[in-house]
C-alpha cells in the first residue's frame, strides 16, 4: 500500500527535531521538485509514546518501508528502532543529510530499502572539509 | 565530582541529554533509573546504542538505584541520573536518604489530564503536588530543558500558563 502526496507517491518518512524534517524536505523540493515523495514528522512537544504513535500512524497511512531520522541518539530514532521489532521489512537510516536524501529522491527503482542503502553511501561520501 | 544533574525527562536518553547536556557538562555516564527498562535487556541495548562511545549507561530500578547512588556520587567523572517521570524521581529522592538536593524537570510532555506549564512541561494536579512535596523536603526543583535556557523555579513553573 502506498499513498500519494500532492500527486506524487510517498517513498519515505523523514523525522527529526524541530522543523528539521520539513526544512530538509523543502530543500529537496527546491533542488529536485520531488519533495512530495517525503512526509515530515517532528518530535516537538511529544513524549516518546506519542512520537512512536505518530510515526506508526504515518507508516500505516503511507505504506512506506523507509524512514530517515536526523540523530542516532534522538527520540525519533529511538521510537523507530523500537517499532522495527514488529515491522519486518521496514528500514531506518539515521544521521540523514541533504545529499543522502537527494540521492534517494532521484532513484526510481522498485526497492526503496535498497535505494536507501545506496543513498546512505552517497550521503556519507558527501561529507568534506576544506581550508582551515 | 558529584552527579551533575538529576533529571526528569520522559524521553529518557535522547538528543537533549546526550548532546545538549552531555557535551557542555562532559558527561561520562548516565544512570537510567526505570523499573521497566531495568527488566528489559532489549530496551537497555536500545538505549546503550544511542550514546557516544565515551559515555557509559547504567540501568537500575528505583530501589536498586538508591542503594547504588553513593557510588555514582563519588565517581571522579561527571554523570547524570535520569528518570522518566515525576513519580520515579519522588521515590528515588525518598529512598536515597537526602542525598539528592536538586531536581531538573527537563521534559514532561502533553498527556490527557495534564495542564501545560511550559512548552516542555505538562503536569497533572498529582504531579504538581509531588513536585511541591520534593520542595518541602528541601530539594531545589526547577525546570530547564537545555543548558542555555533559564532555569524556571518551581513556584514560577506552577504559576506558568500554557503559553509561557
Briefly say what this structure is.
The complex is a heterodimer of chains A (132) and B (164). Chain A has 132 residues and is an alpha/beta fold.
Account of the 3D structure:
- The complex is a heterodimer of chains A (132) and B (164).
- With 132 residues, chain A is of the alpha/beta class.
- Chain A has a single domain (4-125), classed as Phosphotransferase system, mannose-type IIA component (Rossmann fold), CATH 3.40.50.
- Chain A has helices at 20-32, 48-62, 75-84, 98-106, 112-125; strands at residues 4-5, 8-9, 12-16, 38-42, 66-69, 91-94.
- In chain A, the strands form two sheets. A four-stranded parallel β-sheet of chain A has the order 4-3-5-6, with helices on both faces. Chain A has a two-stranded antiparallel ribbon with strand order 1-2.
- In chain A, β5 (66-69), α3 (75-84) and β6 (91-94) form a beta-alpha-beta unit.
- In chain A, α1 (20-32) packs across α4, α2 (48-62) packs across α3 and α4 (98-106) packs antiparallel against α5.
- The radius of gyration of chain A is 14 Å and the shape is globular.
- Chain A starts with a strand and ends in a 7-residue tail after the last helix.
- The mean pLDDT of chain A is 93.
- Chain B is of the alpha/beta class and 164 residues long.
- Chain B has one domain (5-159): 3-Layer(aba) Sandwich (Fructose Permease), CATH 3.40.35.10.
- Chain B is 36% helix and 24% strand.
- In chain B, the strands form two sheets. In chain B, strands 3-2-4-1-5-8-9 form a seven-stranded mixed β-sheet, with helices on both faces. Chain B has a two-stranded antiparallel ribbon with strand order 6-7.
- The termini of chain B are far apart.
- The chains are: A alpha/beta (132), B alpha/beta (164).
- The interface between A and B is medium-sized, with 17 and 23 residues.
Amino acid at each position: 500500500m502506498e499513498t500519494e502526496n500532492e500527486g506524487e507517491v510517498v517513498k519515505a518518512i523523514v523525522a527529526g527535531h524541530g522543523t528539521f524534517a520539513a526544512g530538509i524536505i523543502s530543500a529537496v523540493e527546491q533542488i529536485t521538485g520531488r519533495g512530495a515523495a517525503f512526509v515530515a514528522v517532528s518530535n516537538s512537544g511529544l513524549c516518546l509514546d506519542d512520537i512512536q504513535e505518530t510515526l506508526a500512524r504515518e507508516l500505516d497511512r503511507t505504506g512506506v518501508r523507509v524512514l530517515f531520522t536526523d540523530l542516532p541518539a534522538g527520540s525519533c530514532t529511538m521510537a523507530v528502532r523500537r517499532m522495527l521489532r514488529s515491522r519486518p521489512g521496514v528500514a531506518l537510516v539515521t544521521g540523514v543529510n541533504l545529499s543522502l536524501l537527494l540521492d534517494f529522491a532521484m532513484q526510481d527503482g522498485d526497492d526503496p530499502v535498497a535505494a536507501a542503502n545506496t543513498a546512505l553511501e552517497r550521503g556519507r561520501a558527501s561529507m568534506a572539509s576544506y581550508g582551515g | 565530582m558529584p552527579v551533575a544533574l538529576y533529571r526528569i525527562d520522559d524521553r529518557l536518553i535522547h538528543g537533549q541529554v546526550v548532546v545538549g547536556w552531555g557535551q557542555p557538562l562532559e558527561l561520562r555516564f548516565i544512570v537510567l533509573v526505570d523499573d521497566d527498562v531495568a527488566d528489559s535487556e532489549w530496551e537497555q541495548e536500545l538505549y546503550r546504542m544511542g550514546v557516544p562511545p565515551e559515555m557509559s549507561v547504567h540501568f537500575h530500578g528505583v530501589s536498586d538505584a538508591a542503594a547504588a547512588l553513593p557510588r555514582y556520587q563519588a565517581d571522579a567523572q561527571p554523570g547524570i541520573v535520569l528518570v522518566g517521570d515525576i513519580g520515579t524521581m519522588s521515590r528515588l529522592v525518598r529512598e536515597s536518604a537526602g542525598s539528592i538536593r536538586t531536581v531538573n524537570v527537563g521534559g514532561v510532555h502533553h498527556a490527557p489530564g495534564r495542564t501545560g506549564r511550559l512548552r516542555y512541561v505538562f503536569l497533572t494536579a498529582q504531579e504538581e503536588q509531588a513536585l511541591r512535596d520534593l520542595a518541602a523536603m528541601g530539594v531545589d526543583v526547577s525546570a530547564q530543558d537545555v543548558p542555555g535556557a533559564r532555569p524556571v523555579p518551581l513556584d514560577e513553573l506552577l504559576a506558568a500558563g500554557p503559553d509561557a
